[in-house]
Amino acid sequence: MTTDIVAALTERQKGRLPDYLGMEWLEARSGYIKGRFIVTPHHIAPNTYLHAASIVTLLDTACGYGCFISKPAEASGFTTVELKTNFLGTTREGEVVGEARMVHGGRTTQVWDAEAKHEGKTLALFRCTQMILYPK
To answer: What distance, in Å, lies between the first and last C-alpha atoms of the chain?
Structure first.
């Protein structure tokens, strides 16, 4: 089942920011998602280190996709209402892997925790709240 979900998420992002930044999804199921990108020059900030927005994009997208595949069946969508990132490290090359887990799955909100790593070293801790949307 995870292969079908990964393929659907990959198709969903075509032509959008996650696609432009080379986000790839490795595993996805209700309550959990794992993805990555390979650091290339467009991920680097003018200070020559990984741009913080590259990590935020990976983790926010992971949490958003996780919410999308985990939302209640009657929900029509979701939107991010809050996010927080603590940066603990950086890199200039290699693979950045992000994992996200749902820590609260209510009818009106979901809370997700995520972590970005490079070669086993934590680069960032991330938490976000998603508001679940319903048809009017």
So the answer is: 31
